[in-house]
């Protein structure tokens, strides 16, 4: 089997760490949309061979307490992935670049993927300080051919 690239897309809303543009992360159930991308996996009768690899990196800073940041990825408004990261504040580590990967399997057609973050710990504060990047690679397994 071989893998064929069908589509690729990336968003980079913030390229650098910058305290001057820090944005406070809302507490659950509210969330902040960080980035959105659109991918086309093409029409395929056998979606078992399709997958989308998604990678997100978000620069965050702990301000008060130990925040519990919940990062989510949505496909067309439906959650398909989440991960949580604890973020410490003053007196310890404060700045983090959180990176994660998700695989969305058996998909066809065009989809919008959205990356969000929210703080699940009450009485804490964390900020998005950058960078932010979100990318997706759509692939399909194909029969190998001998050349």
TrEMBL record:
This is Exosporium protein C.
């Amino acid at each position: 089997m071989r893998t064929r690239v069908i589509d690729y897309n990336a968003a980079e809303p913030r390229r650098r760490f910058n305290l001057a543009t820090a944005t406070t992360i809302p507490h659950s159930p509210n969330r902040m949309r960080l980035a959105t991308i659109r991918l086309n996996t093409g029409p395929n009768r056998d979606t078992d061979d399709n997958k989308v690899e998604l990678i997100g990196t978000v620069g965050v800073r702990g301000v008060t307490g130990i925040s519990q940041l919940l990062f989510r990825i949505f496909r067309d408004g439906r959650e398909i992935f989440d991960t949580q990261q604890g973020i410490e504040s003053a007196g310890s580590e404060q700045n983090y670049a959180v990176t994660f990967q998700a695989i969305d399997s058996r998909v066809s057609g065009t989809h919008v993927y959205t990356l969000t973050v929210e703080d699940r710990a009450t009485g804490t504060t964390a900020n998005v300080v950058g960078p932010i990047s979100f990318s997706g690679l759509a692939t399909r397994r194909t029969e190998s051919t001998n050349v």
